[in-house]
Design brief:
GMP Synthetase, Chain A, domain 3; Rossmann fold; 15 helices
Length: about 500
């Protein structure tokens, strides 16, 4: 079988044509694998008819739904390259990605027609020649997605592109500086799927909930893994904590991926008649998972399996196994099956067990490169190891515990302080709904931790927050000041936007 990721759908449709592939709870639409494959062929042939060929970049500005899945796989089948776009970006940011990637086709949802119309009006600033709109009153400059695909043949197109040919360019969140395009090939994605299948408890006929946006690897890789394993994807339009409980009950969800913030929001709105009896496990990542959160779901009979991964690794890096999810709560487990992980000190040597160091990842699913960024590629992948910029410890048994990002670490009195550790303590306070920690200037200590807190209890005071940390943190890690906010800013995958917080509280010092 040719190693083209789009052909995996054709194979699954051949093997299990009547198995449900995609369910959209917000629209009520349900599609079997045979139906999804025919829709994908129509999209592939429509792309071919507009001149899209091997290596051409096709950008997707689409919310979660069957059209995202089918268009991604259609682009894969014809050997073109997908550029998934974060639909929370403003036109200037989208323009940069479209121009940087050299995308020639943009498929966009009607939700974003205003932003796309602005981009279209900028003309030569992008290389887009074909604009395709899904839904709504179609803009005069755009093709109608339904008519465009509807007129095309549903016969499988001649497949081009495989193995080391590029499959997608996924731009990093750009929390600092300009985003970089992470390039994955059919081969790196295949190995990503193989290592997920060999490590995670994924089964034929599973029902997998996809709540993260599909433009993110934390949703895209599981979606492709579901096709590979023969599972059903439940794809709501977006994350809604109340709806998630309903989907657990009504769709008999067995597994999924929810970031810690989502899990916290769900606990706050859990209905009295909630039923998660079919849920075997939920992966959680993008940030260290508080132990209190793991134990809260344990009491509901739901295992939380902490996962650690990156866009650059096509997702997989470390995963806690079902055997260790509770006894090793707080750890992100060991390296995935086809993956090697090291924790290295500043000299590049293996750190001693329990000592913090940078996480290095190696495996055949590591990205090919950063698009048009040879210097950044060379500084990130050295001697075959991906340097993640994340800080962790590894114990004698190989269990990895993520501590923080290198750039988010602060130094107080000459000691390294990892905000995630303090955030874990803050979130254990029942009066705290959400929390983040940043470093602020201190004449005495150089930097000191500032806690930014969302209150669950309106009566919570700064003194009570600080008092709640005493005895649980070393003095040099202690929170020195607290600010209360209505919401912690996060990117679409739930990561705290520390840059935004640093800008918001740049005038604060703890002296």
């Amino acid at each position: 079988m040719q190693n083209n990721i789009g052909l995996f759908l054709a194979k699954r449709a051949l093997l299990n044509p009547h198995l449900e592939a995609v369910v959209e709870p917000n629209t009520g639409r349900r599609f079997t694998y045979a139906e999804l494959d025919r829709r994908t062929n129509k999209a592939a042939n429509a792309l071919r008819a507009t001149g899209v060929g091997k290596g051409d970049r096709v950008a997707l500005l689409l919310t979660n739904g069957v059209e995202f899945v089918e268009t991604f796989l259609a682009v894969a089948k014809i050997g073109a390259v997908v550029v998934p776009l974060n639909w929370r970006l403003v036109p200037d940011e989208l323009e940069f990605i479209l121009k940087d990637s050299g995308s020639r086709t943009l498929v966009f949802a009607s939700d974003f027609v205003a932003a796309v119309a602005e981009l279209h009006g900028r003309g030569a600033k992008t290389d887009i020649s074909d604009w395709v709109q899904l839904g709504g009153d179609v803009a005069p400059f755009a093709l109608d997605y339904a008519a465009w695909t509807g007129a095309a043949s549903d016969v499988s197109p001649t497949t081009t592109g495989s193995d080391d040919d590029n499959l997608f360019i996924m731009y990093t969140s750009g929390t600092t500086g300009l985003p970089k395009g992470v390039v994955h090939t059919h081969s790196t994605v295949l190995w990503g799927l193989l290592t997920i299948a060999a490590t995670a408890d994924v089964r034929f006929r599973d029902v997998y909930l996809i709540s993260l946006p599909l433009f993110h690897v934390g949703a895209l890789s599981p979606a492709l893994a579901n096709i590979y394993k023969g599972a059903t994807m439940i794809v709501p339009a977006g994350f809604d904590p109340k709806q998630t409980w309903e989907l657990f009950r009504d769709e008999k969800v067995t597994s999924g991926l929810l970031v810690p913030a989502m899990l916290q929001f769900m606990l706050a709105v859990q209905p009295a008649d909630s039923d998660a009896s079919t849920v075997r496990w939920i992966m959680s990542g993008a940030a260290p998972v508080p132990v209190t959160l793991i134990k809260a779901y344990e009491s509901l009979g739901v295992e939380i399996h902490q996962v650690y991964g990156l866009t650059e690794s096509c997702g997989p890096a470390c995963l806690i196994s079902p055997d260790d999810a509770l006894t090793r709560a707080g750890s992100t487990g060991k390296a995935f099956f086809h993956t090697n992980v090291r924790v290295a000190d500043e000299d590049g040597n293996d750190a001693d067990p329990g000592q913090p160091g940078e996480v290095l990842v190696q495996g055949p699913h590591i990205m090919k490169e950063y698009w048009n960024r040879p210097d950044a590629t060379a500084s990130t992948i050295r001697d075959g190891w991906l340097h993640t910029g994340d800080i962790a410890t590894m114990d004698e048994d190989g269990f990895v515990t993520i501590m923080d990002r290198v750039k988010d670490m602060l130094i107080s009195g000459g000691e390294n302080v990892y905000p995630a550790e303090i955030e874990n303590v803050l979130l254990a306070n029942p009066a705290v709904a959400d929390a983040a920690v940043i470093g602020v200037p201190s004449a005495r200590w150089g930097e000191s931790p500032l806690a930014i807190v969302v209150r669950k209890d309106p009566a919570l005071t700064e003194a009570a927050v600080i008092e709640g940390c005493k005895g649980r943190l070393a003095p040099f890690k202690m929170v020195k000041a607290v600010r209360f906010v209505d919401e912690i800013p996060r990117n679409p995958t739930g990561k705290i936007l520390k840059r935004v917080l640093r800008e918001q509280f740049e005038e604060i010092s703890t002296d």
